[in-house]
Amino acid sequence: MPRIWLVPTALALVAAASPNWTATVRTQPSGAHVMGNPAARVKLVEYLSYTCGHCAHFATEAKQALRQNYVAKGLVSVEFRNAVRDRYDFAAALLARCGGAGRFHGNTEALFAAQEEWLSKAPAFERDNGARVAALSINDGLKAIARGVGLDEIMVRRGFTQTQIDGCLTAKAEQEKVAAMANEAWNSRKIKGTPFFLINGAPVEGVGNWSGLEPRLKSAAMAGK
Hints:
Helices cover 58% and strands 12% of the residues. The protein is α+β, with helices and mostly antiparallel strands. The protein has a six-stranded mixed beta sheet. Helix 2 (53-71) links the parallel strand 3 (42-48) and strand 4 (76-82). Helix 3 (87-96) crosses helix 4 and helix 6 (122-135) packs antiparallel against helix 7 (138-149). The chain is globular, with a radius of gyration of 20 Å. The termini are far apart.
């Protein structure tokens, strides 16, 4: 009889020894979110904007391969930093943070997946309401933008209440973190566009898609082996 239980016990030990690092998400003091093994050989940083079409495309094409082949195995950790470009981007960045670190990646995927849906409404909303929104307080302006282009509807589909959504938009500490990350991206690091990547602290110039980034990641992950 004891032999019957040896196989599942062994499998459990193997599973325990090989965690899926995509489930490990933490928030940096800067407000950036990091997915993966803290001791990963390769530290990937992505500067992203929610109003950037290339960022939405990268999120879609890289999701499965990056997570399964690199992050899940503990080879690469990914840090996401906001490089906000406009007030619609700012509203989306704040909403992505709703629910804490554990909801960040799901929120980000949902916002990018529906980017065409909400961003296509922005020009008309800006034309008809831009002056009015500019005269509002920052909190009221962000709430008006989220309602005006349907960002709040995306978050409702994610299970958030309107009260929670408004709370995420008006959280001063989160606003300051997102603004500081944007300032670091555009004014200190002087990135030229998004997505922009760092691998182990070194800028990856001229690469904005998965096919260009993966060989660099693979090379860094194999270095020193």
